[in-house]
Design brief:
By secondary structure, the protein is α+β, with helices and mostly antiparallel strands. It has 26 helices and 28 strands. The strands form 7 sheets. Strands 1, 2, 6, 7, 8, 9, 10, 21 and 22 form a 9-stranded mixed β-sheet that branches.
Amino acid sequence: MPKNTPSFDVVVVGAGHAGCEAAMAAARMGLRTALVTLKKELIAQMSCNPAVGGIAKGHLVREIDALGGIMGEVTDAVGIQFRLLNTSRGPAVWSPRAQCDKSQYRVKMREVLESQPGLEIVEAEVAGLILQHSAFGTEHSAVNAIGKEERADPSTSLRSAQDDNPKKEVVAGITLRDGSEIRAKAVIITTGTFLNGLIHCGEKTYPAGRSGEPPAVMLGESLKKLGLRGTRLKTGTPPRLDGRTIAWEKFQVQPGDADPTPFSFRTKKISQTQVPCYIATTTEETRRLIAENVHRSPMYSGQIKSVGPRYCPSIEDKIVKFPDKLTHQLFLEPEGLHTHEVYVNGMSTSLPVDVQEAMIKSIPGLENAVMLRPGYAIEYDAIDAQELDRTLAVKKFDGLYLAGQINGTSGYEEAACQGLMAGINAALKIKGEAPLVLDRTEAYIAILIDDLISKGTNEPYRMFTSRAEFRLHLRIDNADRRLTPYGRRIGLIDDAAWSDFEAKQERAAILTKILETERIPAGSALAEKYVSSANSTYAQWLRRPEAGIEELVLMLRERMPGYFERSVSRQSSLSEVSSFEFQVSKAEVSGDGCVVGAGAVKADQNYAAERHCATRVEQLSFIATSEKYIDPSTRLRLAQDDNSTEGDCATQARRAAESYDFSAAAHLRVSDIAASDEELPSVLPAFAILQAVGDGPSANALSAEVRNELKSVETEVKFAGYLLQQQRAIDRLKKAEQRNIPMWFDYSSVSGLSKEMNEKLERVRPKTIGHALGIPGVTPAAVSLINIFIEIQGRKHAALSR
C-alpha cells in the first residue's frame, strides 16, 4: 500500500438517499466511514419531486426511522406540506407523504452527516475498485481509470483468479480519478442514475448523471468488467415553472393536513411553516399537442431503448396508452419556501422543449407561465439484483455492497431503505456479527429486498402495499414495535429513543387493558346512543364498524390524565402551527352536541369534510390543535357553501378571500403576518399562511403524537380477530419455509425440474424453501420435489463425508 493512503472501515460511493443512510448507519455503529461524492453541495439532492413518502413509500420511511435511519427526521424538519393518504380506507394502507423544501433538505442532511463522529465526507470522482485475491493477497485494479498502465489486466486477472481458486475476490477499496486510492474493508456503491447516464430531451441527447452533472463513466465501465449482469433502465422528470407567472386563482387548492403526522417516531411536532399545493387539469388542446408530436418523443421514436417505470408514466405515455381519457390531473407543487420554482407533478416528459412550452400554455392558469427548466428522460446502467444476497452484498465478491437505483429500484424511499440495510450489514460483517436479514412478514423493506434478489426486475421497481402478503401486520403505526428492537440491538437506537419507545409500549398496554376490561355504564351517553352496547366492554364496542376511539377521549382523559398531558404543552408560534384549519375555542354547544356559532373546519382534499363542523365535543377536541389557519381560496368555498359554519367563521372567510391578492406582483412581497413577535419567514403569498382565526389554544387539544397513539391502539383492538388469524397463517408459512437448502444441493439431479427452473435456481441459489417459492417460474410442485431431494441427496452427502 502506498504511503499516506487513507484507510477506512467502510467507504460509501455516492451521497444520494441510499448513500446517506448507508454512511450514517456504518458510522453510528462505530466504524470509521468515508462518504465519497462529486459535490458536497448536492448531498441528498432531490433530483425529481422534492417529496417523501406516499402509498407504501411512506411505510418504508417509517421503517427506516424505526430501525434508526435518518430520512424521517430530516423530512420532518424541512417538510412544508404533510398529508396522510388513504384515510378513507383501512389503516393497513394509510401512508404519510410530505412535500419538502428542496434546498433545506440538502442543507439539513449535510448538517446531520457532518455532525456524525467517525464519518468523513470526501469530494472526489471514483474510477474503480481495488480487488484483492483472497487466497494469495495479490491485487489488481478493476479499471484503467485514466489511461495509465494498470498493475494487471482486469478482465484476465479477475477471470484467472476465479479459475485458479474458488475463493471469492475481496474488494479492498476504491481508486479515484486522480490515481489515488482509498482503502476499506467494505465498499457500498450507491450511484443512482449516474452510471453511464444519458439524458434525452426531444431529439437532443447528452451524457449526464442528472441535469447539470456529469455521469459516472469510469466507474460504470469498471463495474461492467466485474462480470456482473447488468441492465439499462430509464426514468424521467417534468418541467419546472416560475410561480410568479402562474394565475393561482384558477386552480383548486390542495391543502395539507391540519395537524401533520410526522414520519419519525422521535418527532414530537412539526415546526416548519406549512403550505398548500394546487390541482390543475390538462385540456383537449394539451392532448392534441402531445398526440401530434409523440413521434418526436425519444420513447416513441426509438431513441430510448430501455424500460421506464410502469407506475410513473410520462404524459405522452398516458395519452398513447389511455386514448379514451380526455384529461389528466396535474399538481402544482412548490419546491421550497424561498424559491419561485414549481414542480408540475404528473407531467413527466421527454418531448422537445418547444412542445413542452406549448403543452404548459394549453392549461388554463398557465397561459403566461414561464418554464424555468424542461422535463427530460434519463437512461442509466443498473445491476441485476439477483447478483446480490439478502444482505445486499455481491455474491461473487467479498466486501462489495450495492444499494439504491443501481439495483433497479425507483424513488428516494426505496433507495434509502436499501442504503440503510447495506450500511448495517457491512458494519456487522466487519464487526464479525451475524447479519440483519428481515423477513417478509416483518417489514416492507424485507419485501423489497426479497423481490429484488429473488425475482430481479426489468423495470424500475416501485413499492406498493399490494406486494405484502400480510399488510395488516405491516402498518405505519406499528413500524417501531416491529423494528425498533432490531435497531437497538445493532446500536442505531440510542438510550433516549429506546426509553421513549418503551414508555410508548407501556402506555399502549395500559390503554388496551382499560378498553378490554372496563364496561360501558348503563345510562351513559354512549349506551344511549348505541343501545346494544350497554354493558359491553369498550373494546367490544370499538369493534363495531361505526365506532371510533374519538368518542372515548373524555372517558380516557378521566382514567389516564397523564396520557394526555403532552397534548397541551405545545407552543403556538406561527412557525409551529399547521395551515388550513381554523378553530374558535369559545364554542357554544347545542343539546345534541353540535358546535354552533363557532367550530372546526378541516380543509382537506375531500370537500365534504371541509364543510362539516364537529358533531360531538369529543370530535372537536380530537382534531383541534393550538392555533389554526386556513388559506383564502378554501375560505371562499366554505363561505359560499350553505352548510358552512355560521357567524364569524363565514364572515371572516369571505373577507379574507375577497382581500387576497393573487397577482404576480404579490409573489414578490413578503407577508407582514407576525405571531408572538416573530415575523413569518419570507414565502410566496400563494403558499403562505395568511390569517389567524381563533382566540387561542383549546384546552382539549390533542397533539398528533397522542392522536396517532390512540389510533394505533384502536386499530389493534378493532382488528384483533383479523390480526390473530393472520398471525396463525404467518406461523404456518414460516414453519414450512424455514427448511434450509444446503449449499451443496445439486439442482441438476432433481428429475422433473425444467431447464429454465434449473437455471434460475442455480443462479439465485435460494437458501430456504420459502426463498425458492419466491422465484418467478418456480412452481409449488417443483419446490415439493426439491424438498424430497434434500433428503435423498442428504443421505448421499453424509455417506461421502464419512
